[in-house]
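Quick one, probably user error.
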């Protein structure tokens, strides 16, 4: 049975079954092929209008959503809070009412407050894709990460995936844990105790390690996370140098992982802090491919949700 996607919201991956996630991955494979053509545009969503409603800054993710919509021939309305009426005191509710009057068919939203995508859907009654809401979720990043692994290694069942860094503040980790667990991967999270929630094992079923060598032992996939420099002011770790001393991904630390372990990072990277150039740029790294896969994943979701014609 083909899963029903038309009109669905993408708040996080807990709303989607294993079969539905696999269906999205297969659709992404087709969209990636389109992105390799000389002419990277198809008319499948001609006449539809997609709004990128970014109340929190993120140039990379916003551009990826807009490029995805454009390649499907949808019209794109780009809303950036820094140059909008929100700076003049307008509420999110009134902003959505205004945008809805312009005939928006799909919203792609990033916001610093968890639950904002649900509010946008409530006010618009149009499908919403969550492009990141606070520390809560980032489902399209998780899907592109999962696709990048699936494309290289096939079935995720039984794979050991190690995620290293600021687990406490990462919406990427939360969405990845949900999706990877549904596909049967064994995930280990690793980082300083001050950057690790206390309930990871019971809530997400992952393994928690504080020692990088043990966390990387036998890993098929290693994902570094951006060390968020703004956390320095919160006193959660002494210094970037201290973090790097214990948790940087390098040739030395990665000797514990499998020899051909995939190297991943959601970006942007702080080279020399969470990952060294020798690892970020080696032949096992799929960090650059993750960016192109992100466009394909977002194309697939828009296609499925808006009922595009092949």
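Nope, works fine. Designed sequence:
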């Amino acid at each position: 049975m083909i899963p029903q996607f038309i009109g669905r919201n993408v708040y996080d991956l807990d709303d989607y079954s294993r079969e539905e996630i696999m269906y999205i991955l297969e659709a992404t494979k087709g969209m990636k092929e389109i992105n390799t053509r000389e002419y990277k545009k198809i008319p499948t969503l001609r006449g539809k209008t997609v709004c990128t409603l970014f109340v929190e800054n993120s140039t990379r993710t916003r551009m990826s959503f807009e490029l995805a919509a454009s390649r499907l021939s949808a019209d794109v309305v780009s809303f950036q809070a820094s140059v909008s009426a929100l700076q003049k005191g307008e509420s999110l509710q009134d902003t959505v009412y205004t945008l809805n009057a312009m005939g928006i068919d799909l919203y792609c939203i990033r916001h610093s407050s968890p639950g904002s995508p649900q509010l946008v859907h409530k006010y618009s009654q149009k499908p919403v894709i969550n492009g990141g809401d606070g520390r809560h979720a980032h489902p399209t990043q998780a899907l592109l990460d999962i696709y990048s692994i699936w494309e290289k290694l096939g079935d995720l069942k039984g794979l050991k995936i190690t995620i290293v860094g600021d687990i406490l503040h990462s919406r990427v980790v939360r969405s990845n844990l949900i999706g990877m667990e549904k596909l049967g991967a064994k995930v280990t999270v690793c980082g300083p105790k001050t950057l690790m929630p206390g309930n990871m094992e019971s809530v997400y079923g992952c393994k928690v390690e504080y020692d990088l060598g043990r966390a990387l032992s036998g890993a098929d996939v290693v994902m570094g996370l951006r060390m968020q420099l703004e956390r320095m002011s919160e006193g959660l770790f002494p210094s970037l140098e201290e973090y790097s001393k214990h948790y940087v991904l390098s040739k030395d630390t990665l000797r514990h992982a499998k020899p051909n372990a995939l190297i991943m990072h959601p970006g942007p990277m702080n080279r020399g802090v969470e990952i060294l150039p020798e690892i970020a740029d080696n032949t096992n790294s799929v960090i650059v491919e993750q960016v192109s896969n992100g466009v394909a994943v977002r194309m697939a979701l828009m296609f499925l949700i808006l009922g595009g014609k092949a």
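The mean pLDDT is 91.
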